[in-house]
Structure formats: C-alpha cells, structure tokens
Amino acid sequence: REAGIDAAHARAPADAIPSVPVAEDVVTPSGPYRLRLMARSSHWTAPLPGGDTAVAWQRPDGRVGIRAGSEDGVAQARFMLALDDDTAEFHRRFARDPLIGASARALAGYRPLRLATVAHAALRAVAGQLVESSLARSIERSVLRACGERVASQGALSRLSPAELRRCGLATHRATTLVRLVRGGDLERLRCHPTSTVRAHL
Fold it and tell me: Whole-prediction pTM value?
C-alpha cells in the first residue's frame, strides 16, 4: 500500500467515497493508461460479487487509486481495470496502419474494461450477438433482475431455464447456448487460462 495514500483520498471524487470502512490501494499502471477515456467519467464505479462496489480514479501523477469493501475487492477491481496489461506495443505497432492507425493513435492508453465474473462476461457476449447495443444491455439487465444480482454469478445463471431466459429477451438458440455454458463446468477458472484453452472449452 502507498504511504501517501491520504493524498490520493484528497483527489478522490467526493460522491465516490463510501461512508463505511474500505480497503484501498494506489497502483502504477503498466504502460500508458487513460481511465477517463475508458470510463467516460472522472471516476470508474463497478459492482462486485457479494454486493460490494469498487471505485477508481486516476491521480494527476498517472497512478490509479482504487477503493472497495475488501482486499479481495481491490484485487478484483485491479483485474477489471486491466492495470497490469500494457497495450503500448499494439498502439506503437499499428500507429501508422492505413486502416486503424488513426484509432490506434487516438486511443493510446485505452484498455477494455472487464466484468467481475466470467459468467457475467458470457452473459454479455451472448446477449450482444447481432443486436443493437441498447437492446443487448436491456436483455442483460433483464437477466440480472431474474438472477437477483448486480453481477451475474454462474450459480444464479445456471438456475435459469432457457424458457426464463427467452422471457428476458434472448433468442431461443442463444438462451440454450448460455444455459449450456453456465452448466458445463467452472467458468471462473477460465480467467487464469490462455485464450486457446478458453476457446477449446467453450
């Protein structure tokens, strides 16, 4: 933990400071990092499993302050924020590419934000196939309400039948696919495996 963390607190958004005891850290990102670009706000807030919430903000020195209700929550937020995944080589390599060069330069420091669980990522991926983003998010929210959770867990999703998922807006084949995924083994262990292993499992 940073010895000067009180200085980070002074720069944290006032509306993002919980009134309950929290765990905290200040992290130096690997490579260029622009949280405001990623979160489209001065700070990032995300739900965590178990009802916890994580908050992060970027300090003037480039480091990122993180708060959550527990040490595990801080560690999970660090993973969700992709703080240890340096994308500088990608932006350098494609900076002058005729197709994506302009975007590679403009989005230097941008990293896709992750969800808290692999199960929730699977839900978002299935819900977002070949539909408008607004409809995809509406379907995702409906499924979360059916689960009774802010963050989709594998256990809650596996208790939903294809018929219940269809009532949430998923097409029949997508509902069936999601049920097969969440009932087919421990999804959360996949976060520790390379893409090739995950692809083979799915």
Answer: 0.83
